[in-house]
Write a structure and sequence with these properties.
It is built from 4 helices and 2 strands, in the order βαβααα. By secondary structure, it is mostly helical. A two-stranded antiparallel sheet has the order 1-2. It is elongated and about 45 Å long. The model has no long low-confidence stretch (mean pLDDT about 75).
């Protein structure tokens, strides 16, 4: 099922309704590998130590996991945990989202 998201700011700027199609499909594993390479390229010593502690978050066996997550990482909708997400955001490493489909 295709979902759509309304962009209020773009709609106000362009004086027309702007809607984006949202892809709810799983993220391809290749995008995860690329994102993890970019995350691993961060050289800040403190960030490296924090990422090492949170390395397994999202897999079901990490320190932030409840232990009930059996979903493969390729099907996740975001980074493994808030800590990883915050560090990635600070260093400009985006979560891999599927590219928009061309018409």
């Amino acid at each position: 099922m295709t979902r759509y998201e309304y962009d209020e700011e773009a709609s106000q700027q362009l004086h027309t309704d702007v809607v984006y199609e949202i892809d709810d499909g799983p993220t391809p594993v290749a995008r995860w590998v690329d994102a993890m390479r970019r995350l691993n390229s961060i050289n800040d010593p403190l960030a490296r130590r924090i990422l090492a502690v949170h390395r397994d978050c999202g897999s079901g066996s990490g320190p932030c996991d409840s232990g009930f997550e059996d979903e493969p990482i390729a099907r996740k909708a975001d980074w493994g945990c808030e800590t990883t997400s915050a560090i990635a955001g600070h260093f400009g490493v985006d979560y891999p989202v599927a590219p928009p489909e061309s018409d």
